Amino acid sequence: MKKRQRKFCFRRYIKNGKAVLLLGTAAVLLSGCGSGKEETVKSIKVGVTLYDQYDTFLMEMMQAFKEYMLKKESETDVTISVEILDASGSQTTQNEQMRTLVEKGCDVICVNLVDRTEPTTITDMAEKNNIPIIFFNRELVAEDLERWSKLYYVGADAFDSGRIEGELAADAFLTDDGMDRNQDGICQYVVLEGEAGHQDAIVRTECSVNMLLESGVQVEKLGYAIANWNRGQAQTKMASMLAQYAGKMELILANNDDMALGAIDALKASGIPKEEWPVVVGIDGTDPGLEAVEKGEMIGTVYNDKEGQAKGMLDLAFALATGEGLEDIELESNRYIRLPYQKVTKENVSNFRK
Ligand code: GAL
């Protein structure tokens, strides 16, 4: 049992009574560090390293994480300190940050990997120092997660996000005759893709198109562009695709909302009247994404449950750091927490707005 966990036991006694006092005392004596004084300060330290702190979805997820942290503190009387670092897109930087977080005495470290194929330095360091790691949002392959018993993953099921995006697009094509601009019965589309090699980018692209086909929509891919989840890059790439496929594009499938919004920026800048815009669909349900659905600029998005993921990650971090309540957390295959995606349209968008 770690020292901090022992402190936690002791504090519980103060709140909950005699029986637990004996437990806490026993733990302190066993550790040989009983000072004879009652410790009333209990705290845990959580480290977080982000692949890019300016990523909109992650910014919103970390906001939810901090909000939930305050709630958790007031519910448990345990002080939670969090240190959030930005790896700015460099795996080398992130490996150094991992070292720093270990040296600073973090009880658990949450890692949003820069390169999901390179977790080894981090997992080796974690195992050597016996510090649990919760990877999140950028999923590593199962074999890498299984390398040590205290490695976990919090995220969502990328397949579902693609399928729901495809459903949104298929519903629009099958119900709105005007979407088929050239009336050839085929949906001409382009894709804005996230980072090459990211599980969500690969799976979302494939599943959304498969869902269109399964729904009975014939499709023709005009082109695609990689825009790395980024609004500015998407705007630039879309501006050149609009020129290249002038008047032909009927659907823009974006792997996330920021890129869908970049496409909308390009459409606005192009001067094409709104009634002639291709249909735009995104994924995430970020605040600006939901606003675009509300305004009818995007026909829909797929809610990536940032609040659920933030809560899942903090509850797990708390349980790992204090040694309490791990059995109450539902883990798939003992390691995964995955939150479901939800379909967002103009009809239900208000349920998702804060
Ligand atoms: C995805 C999300 C993107 C981006 C990416 C970063 O799940 O939809 O907007 O945040 O993660 O890894």
From the spread of the alpha carbons, the general shape counts as elongated
**Sheet with the most strands: spatial strand order:** 2-1-3-4-5-11
Percent of residues in helices: 40-55%
Instruction: Encode the helix/strand succession as letters.
Output: HHEHEHEHEHEHEHEHEHEHEHEE
Q: Main beta sheet, described? A: 6 strands, parallel
Radius of gyration: 24 Å
Structural class: alpha/beta
Any ligands, ions or cofactors bound here, and which?
Answer: beta-D-galactopyranose
The tally of strands reads 12
How far the N terminus sits from the C terminus, by CA atoms, comes to: 41 Å
The number of helical elements comes to 12
Q: How much of the residues is beta strand, in percent?
A: 15-25%
The poorly predicted ranges are 1-38
Characterize the structure shown.
By secondary structure, the chain is α/β, with parallel strands linked by helices. It has helices at residues 3-16, 18-31, 56-76, 91-103, 120-129, 142-145, 158-175, 199-214, 231-244, 257-270, 287-294, 306-322, and strands at 43-50, 79-86, 108-111, 133-136, 151-156, 186-193, 218-226, 251-254, 279-281, 300-303, 336-339, 342-345. The chain is 46% helix and 19% strand. It is elongated. The protein starts with a helix and ends in a 9-residue tail after the last strand. The structure holds beta-D-galactopyranose. Beta-D-galactopyranose is lined by residues 55, 57-58, 137-138, 200, 229, 256, 258, 283-284, 304.
